[in-house]
């Protein structure tokens, strides 16, 4: 029977990992993969995580199931991290879920239960896996304008013009911060405006926040989610701890529902637990316990926040060096946007042919749409990278 199966389309992000591995050129650069790397190109385990794991090993007394909602203390910790003081009392429930992806999937199923014919709007472009994770039942996926490839910044007028046409059968996916793949983000004033549009039109905001702390800081990056939490009645929020805690393979995330009243919030909470039961039953717990232990201990929390800041500062400083190098090497101000973008990624606005040429002639690997992972660079190879980009774009 298996012969009847179609060959799935290869994942653009995962597909470029294999050729990089077998490339023997010593100066090859991997800017494709979406994980944080330090200045040695390593994805290390944070010291705060190692310490929390040590404590967990000592303290853990059982491996029994954690329950459908997961660990309530973990969900509370996540609520504090993401919502701060902005969560309306009794109206927000969290569900420990397998990564940001698992959270997105649970909430997509909830959306399909509430609005079987909903239209889900994603930004152009968006993280490609959104299409697979959000597609369920009759749900239609549509795109709202977001990125202006001319300026490499948000086309806010086009975005808001589209959002103003939506209504209560529409669900809008909003990247909470550090937009993937573009790196172009909304300012606080722009978040305020989008929140007003949500109130006026009644569309359901569905946040995906996977890089909190990688942009301008833990608090600053939560501005959008918190603004919406204090402005709209209902919303969904999918959170990933993969990046900011560096626990990618432990699969740690949280799916939040915010209801208009305590009763409807409770109803939504019952439903996400029921959805999880039919999908994977109970969530994995190791990574979630690590996050809880870190957040509950003031010293460990501080250590984690310092480590997060180090990662964030490294990316911002690489961005500044990149923009400077482009100017120094004759690229003018065309690439200044790299210093304005935030998070791990930037979309450089190169053609697929230019991306191919970078791989073939310079052993520089990025995603076909010209998304680069800034954390994949090292200070000492910035000038080489910039020279290569200028060669393929000007030559
Ligand atoms: C925008 C966005 N959302 C969600 C995720 C999900 O992350 P994970 O499932 O690994 O926690 C990612 C990961 O790359 C992402 O980039």
UniProtKB/TrEMBL annotation:
Origin: domain of life: Bacteria
InterPro entries in UniProt: Aminotransferase_I/II_large, Asp_trans, NHTrfase_class1_PyrdxlP-BS, PyrdxlP-dep_Trfase, PyrdxlP-dep_Trfase_major, PyrdxlP-dep_Trfase_small
Cellular compartments per GO CC: cytosol
Quaternary structure and interacting proteins, as annotated: Homodimer.
Enzyme type, top EC level: transferase
GO molecular function, one term: L-aspartate:2-oxoglutarate aminotransferase activity
Aminotransferase class I/classII large domain residues: 27-388
NCBIfam families recorded: PRK09257.1
EC number(s) reported in the record: 2.6.1.-
Family per record: Belongs to the class-I pyridoxal-phosphate-dependent aminotransferase family.
The protein's required cofactors: pyridoxal 5'-phosphate
Keywords: Aminotransferase, Pyridoxal phosphate, Transferase
One annotated GO biological process: L-phenylalanine biosynthetic process from chorismate via phenylpyruvate
Protein name: Aminotransferase
Pfam families in alphabetical order: Aminotran_1_2
SUPFAM superfamilies: PLP-dependent transferases
PANTHER family: ASPARTATE AMINOTRANSFERASE (PTHR11879), ASPARTATE AMINOTRANSFERASE, MITOCHONDRIAL (PTHR11879:SF22)
């Amino acid at each position: 029977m298996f012969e009847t199966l179609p060959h799935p389309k290869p994942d653009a992000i995962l597909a470029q990992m294999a050729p990089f591995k077998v490339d023997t050129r010593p100066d090859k650069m991997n800017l494709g993969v979406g994980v944080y790397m330090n200045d040695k190109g390593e994805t290390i385990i944070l010291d705060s995580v190692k310490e929390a794991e040590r404590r967990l090993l000592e303290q853990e007394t059982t491996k029994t199931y954690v329950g459908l909602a997961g660990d309530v203390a973990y969900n509370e910790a996540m609520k504090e991290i993401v919502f701060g003081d902005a969560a309306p009392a009794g109206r927000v429930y969290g569900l420990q879920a397998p990564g940001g992806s698992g959270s997105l999937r649970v909430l997509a199923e909830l959306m399909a239960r509430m609005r079987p014919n909903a239209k889900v709007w994603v930004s152009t472009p968006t993280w490609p896996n959104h299409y697979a994770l959000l597609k369920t039942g009759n749900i239609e996926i549509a795109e709202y304008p977001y990125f202006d490839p001319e300026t490499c910044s948000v086309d806010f007028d086009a975005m808001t013009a589209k959002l103003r046409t939506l209504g209560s059968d529409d669900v809008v996916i909003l990247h909470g911060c550090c937009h993937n793949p573009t790196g172009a983000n909304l300012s606080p004033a722009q978040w305020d405006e989008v929140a007003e549009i949500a109130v006026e039109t009644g569309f359901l905001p569905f946040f995906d926040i996977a890089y909190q702390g990688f942009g301008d800081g833990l608090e600053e990056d939560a501005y959008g989610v918190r603004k919406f939490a204090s402005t709209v009645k209902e919303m969904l929020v999918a959170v990933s701890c993969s990046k900011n805690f560096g626990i990618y393979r432990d699969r740690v995330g949280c799916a939040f529902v915010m209801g208009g009243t305590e009763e409807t919030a409770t109803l939504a909470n019952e439903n996400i637990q029921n959805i999880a039961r039919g999908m994977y039953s109970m969530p994995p717990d190791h990574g979630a316990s690590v996050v809880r232990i870190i957040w509950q201990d003031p010293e460990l929390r501080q250590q984690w926040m310092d480590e997060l800041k180090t990662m964030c500062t490294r990316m911002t400083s690489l961005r500044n060096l990149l923009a400077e190098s482009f100017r120094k090497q004759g690229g003018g101000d065309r690439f200044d946007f790299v210093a304005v973008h935030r998070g791990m990624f930037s979309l450089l606005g190169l053609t697929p042919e230019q991306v191919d040429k970078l791989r073939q002639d310079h052993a520089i690997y990025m995603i076909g749409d010209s998304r680069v992972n800034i954390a994949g660079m090292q200070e000492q190879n910035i000038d080489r990278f910039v020279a290569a980009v200028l060669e393929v774009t000007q030559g």
